[in-house]
Write a structure and sequence with these properties.
The protein is 40% helix and 19% strand. Strand 7 (222-224) and strand 8 form a beta hairpin. The chain has two domains: 5-203, Alpha-Beta Complex (inorganic pyrophosphatase (n-terminal core)), CATH 3.90.1640.10; 210-327, Roll (Diaminopimelate Epimerase, Chain A, domain 1). The protein is built from 13 helices and twelve strands. The protein is an alpha/beta fold. The strands form two sheets. A six-stranded parallel β-sheet has the order 3-2-1-4-5-6, sandwiched between helices.
Length: 337
């Protein structure tokens, strides 16, 4: 059921116990949205628990000094998922992206509320607050809190929402950045968010290993399609050599996209059991459609896919072959994998 803010607000006021969760490898929008929603529910006198498949990335731990976010353990938490009144799924609308929580969430009798800004929601929830024109899920939750008009946004909520919006807008430079999102950011700053500290916490706390990984990734960059496509590769051996993992490639896509003339940038991450692909594009190139060809999805200019039981040697040529068509303006019909 597609809902509006008023309906979702009524549900949050009606129920008393909640589980909040998000997608595998949570980013700033996911973590910030979870923290903000948790704080909001707590201010309403509700009991909420955040359960995630992954541990929180190091550069977002500063938002959760009280350890509100718990890594999901079936033995410890399956009964909780069964007993709560509602489960709020934020920043994803695909149950498969919940990974270890997927079956427990699907089997729970709890009301499922999906709050997200991505296209093509899977019909597993009971209520959907979807705005695919929003810059971020954080923007949607901001509007939910403001329109509910029952609490004051404090520093914790403001900082979490500012982080969500900042990271999903590429620090306010992606195409959906408009006057309204700057007005929202200004309000969050007035409510206690510190832009300098938040940016530093998120982007200026790299480990030496991550910096070395970036060096290896930059060295892997290849340019094709007459300079219109650039892609980079991070392999398992690179992760082991630098003591890092795929989570630490967050935002690496800005580098192939920074090359003059490039309109499609792609990052391939080798997983232990497959390949993760991050797609970016400029202008009107529907990179989410390319992602769909490989089982993924996303937005017009930013999307992703995760392919299991596949190798880089198999996937890279297939993806580049299809990407070339997009770079030439020949947007093809979606084909099977």
């Amino acid at each position: 059921m597609v809902s509006n803010i008023s309906e979702i607000s009524d549900l949050l006021h009606k129920f008393n116990t909640f589980v909040i969760t998000t997608h595998v490898n949570p980013d700033g929008d996911a973590i910030g949205s979870e923290i903000a929603l948790y704080e909001y529910l707590s201010k309403l006198g509700k009991t909420a628990t955040i359960l995630n498949h992954n541990v929180t990335p190091d550069n977002y731990l500063w938002m959760d000094l009280e350890n509100k976010i718990i890594r999901f353990n079936p033995d410890e938490h399956k009964n909780l998922i069964q007993k709560v009144d509602a489960i709020c799924i934020v920043d994803t609308n695909q149950p498969s992206r919940l990974r270890s929580l997927e079956n427990y969430v699907l089997e729970s009798p709890a009301i499922k509320i999906v709050i997200d800004h991505h296209l093509d929601p899977h019909p597993f929830g009971d209520y959907y607050l979807i705005d695919d024109d929003a810059t971020s899920t954080g923007e949607i939750i901001y509007n939910l809190i403001k329109q509910s008009n029952d609490i004051e946004i404090n520093k914790n909520i403001a900082s979490a929402l500012y982080t969500a919006i900042m990271t999903d807008t590429g620090s306010f430079r992606y195409p959906r950045t408009d006057p309204q999102i700057h007005i929202i950011a200004a309000d969050l700053i007035s409510s206690g968010a510190n832009p300098t500290e938040i940016y530093s916490n998120v982007y200026e706390e790299w480990t030496p290993g991550r910096m070395r990984l970036l060096g290896e990734a930059l060295d892997s960059i290849k340019v094709t399609a007459n300079g219109k496509i650039a892609y980079m590769v991070c392999t398992q051996s690179m992760f082991k050599k630098t003591g890092t993992n795929e989570v630490e490639t967050d935002n690496f896509t800005i580098y192939p996209m920074s090359i003059r003339g490039v309109i499609i940038g792609i990052l391939f991450n080798e997983l232990e059991n497959g390949v993760k692909i991050s797609f970016r594009s400029k202008g009107s190139i529907p990179i989410n459609q390319l992602a769909k060809e490989f089982g993924g999805n996303g937005h017009l200019n930013a999307a992703g896919a995760r392919i299991f039981n596949a190798s880089l040697n198999d996937i890279i040529p297939r993806v580049i072959e299809r990407a070339i068509l997009y770079s030439e303006g020949n947007i093809p019909p979606i084909i099977g994998q």
